Automatic annotation (TrEMBL):
Xref: InterPro entries: FSCA_dom_sf, MIP18-like, Mrp/NBP35_ATP-bd, NUBPL-like, P-loop_NTPase, YlxH/NBP35
Source domain of life: Bacteria
CDD domains (alphabetical): Mrp_NBP35
Protein name per the record: Iron-sulfur cluster carrier protein
Subunit structure: Homodimer.
GO biological process terms held by the UniProt record: iron-sulfur cluster assembly
Record: residues binding ATP: 130-137
Organism in which the protein naturally occurs: Bifidobacterium samirii
Keyword vocabulary terms for this entry: ATP-binding, Hydrolase, Iron, Iron-sulfur, Metal-binding, Nucleotide-binding
Family note: Belongs to the Mrp/NBP35 ATP-binding proteins family.
Function text: Binds and transfers iron-sulfur (Fe-S) clusters to target apoproteins. Can hydrolyze ATP.
GO molecular function: 4 iron, 4 sulfur cluster binding; ATP binding; ATP hydrolysis activity; ATP-dependent FeS chaperone activity; metal ion binding
Keyword Transport included in the entry's annotation: no
Chain segments annotated as transmembrane: none
Length: 372
């Protein structure tokens, strides 16, 4: 009888190598690197080919992404050439000690704000406005969703502690997963999110002063496992308060994007949010004019006036000594607001793809200009 054990050992080794390309969606590492593949056992099947038993240990019991991971493992095994493999996957959770060792290793690897390290490749855009009500959070949410739809690994921090709104705009009602003391951001519409609005008691009025605000940002940056996103967006509070200064100190490589509406009462104040760059190490990248017009029966109605974005661009260019372009003019669309309030970034279709209309094209162009 022919000895088949060497073939089986080779099959098991090949499957393990294939599983090294299966990425845990939350931690952004392969399931083999994270120690999630506890065992692989191949053996001949009675009807020919091989049965393969794979024991998977998830980091969290009842992980909501377990089906996603299982599907990826099935796909990796199915790609094995030259032998009929039937996978049988047993899913359990890591022991307390194994999970503690994993988290300790991840924390030791990071040790600090991961976005301030030399050589970091994450592009960071802080979305600011001079006053509230100009659609800054809506622009942040839809820009983040656009980046994700274009294939970028995207993260967003709701740094507007007093007026957080990103959870609602993304339809998030769950809390971050606590991985043995390390929090995982909530993923919605392809974007990794964190907001004070995701935690218990967040419906109450928040009366924090400067030091606690700064500490909240430090925790969002350091105590959350972000992986290595391509893009990080921060939705800042209106004005030039403590959080804007904290962002500049913690993320000196951040680029500021100023949102305004066309009327002078908004654009004049918006200039001040950009002038903060004269006092802190932050570059102003550009200006976005929101609610530029309303289209009615083929006619563009400038309900809030005209020229606000251009005025902010010109004044900041003159004051800062470098080009601060008007990067986008976004129309006013009631449907856009209604869809956003339903919990889906309105720039996306229901299947998560980017809308192929004027609004979708405007956000695509904005994203591409920012990444250029």
């Amino acid at each position: 009888m022919t000895d088949i054990r060497p073939d089986i050992r080779q099959i098991e080794a090949d499957i393990y190598e294939r599983l090294s390309h299966v990425i845990d969606p939350e931690l952004g590492r392969s399931v083999t690197e994270l120690g999630m593949i506890a065992a692989i056992d191949a053996h001949p099947a009675s009807e020919g080919g091989y049965d393969v038993d794979i024991r998977v240990e998830l980091t969290v019991e009842g992980c909501p992404l377990s089906q996603t991971i299982t599907n990826q493992i099935n796909g990796a095994v199915a790609s094995y050439p030259g032998a009929a493999l039937t996978p049988h996957i047993e899913v359990s959770s890591m022991s307390r000690d194994k999970l503690a060792d994993l988290v300790a290793g991840l924390k030791a690897e990071r040790r600090q704000n991961p976005f301030s390290k030399p050589g970091v490749k994450t592009r960071i855009f802080a979305i600011a406005s001079g006053k509230g009500g100009v659609g800054k959070s809506s622009v942040t949410a839809n820009l983040a969703a656009t980046f994700a739809a274009l294939g970028y690994d995207t993260a967003a921090i709701d740094a507007d502690i007093y007026g957080f709104s990103l959870p609602g705009l993304f339809g998030v009602t769950t809390q971050p997963t606590n991985l043995d003391g390390m929090l995982m951001p909530v993923t919605a519409w392809g974007v990794k999110l964190i907001s004070i609005g995701m935690f218990a008691g967040a419906d109450r009025a928040i009366l924090w002063r400067g030091p606690r605000l700064q500490r909240s940002l430090e925790q969002f940056l350091s105590d959350i496992w972000w992986g290595t996103p391509d893009v990080l967006l921060l939705d800042l509070a209106p004005g030039t308060g403590d959080m804007a200064i904290s962002v500049a100190q913690a993320l000196p490589n951040a680029e500021l994007v100023v949102v305004t509406t066309p009327q002078p009462s908004a654009s004049d104040v918006a200039v001040r949010s950009g002038l903060v760059a004269l006092q802190v190490p932050m570059r102003v990248r550009g200006v976005v004019e929101n609610m530029s017009w309303y289209e009615h029966k083929g006619e563009r109605l400038e309900i809030f006036g005209a020229g606000g974005g251009a005025r902010v661009s010109e004044q900041l260019t003159a004051a800062l000594g470098h080009d601060v372009p008007l990067m986008a003019q976004l129309p006013l669309e009631p449907e856009f607001r209604e869809t956003g309030e339903s919990g889906r970034p309105a720039v996306l279709n229901a299947d998560g793809t980017l809308r192929d209309d004027a609004m979708g094209q405007a956000f695509r162009s904005l994203a591409e200009r920012l990444m250029a």
